[in-house]
Amino acid sequence: MLPDVCVVRQPRPAEKVFSRPPLIWVEILSPEDKPIKVNDKIRQLLEFGVPNIWVIDPETFEAEVHTLSGSRKVEDGVLRAEGTAIEVPLKGLEE
Questions:
Q1: Which numeric CATH code is attached to 5-94?
Q2: pTM for the complete prediction?
Q3: Domain ranges across the chain
């Protein structure tokens, strides 16, 4: 499995396929994505130890955040990485 986009902690990993989980895994939905497959991927990523998973619909800019402590829809338009100061406004992604 490879992310669409990810954020890793230093030092940057040398491998192309992760042996350690990234800090943030970003999944950008495509029209072919089926909810059951996306949910299965999220489960696998959480089991692998990814602490922050962001799922973004590029057409509507709706998003969900999945962490080990639970899942939530992004209501205020800002993606946040739990346990960090990282914040990414969804509105800035559309430009």
A1: 3.90.1570.10
A2: 0.90
A3: 5-94
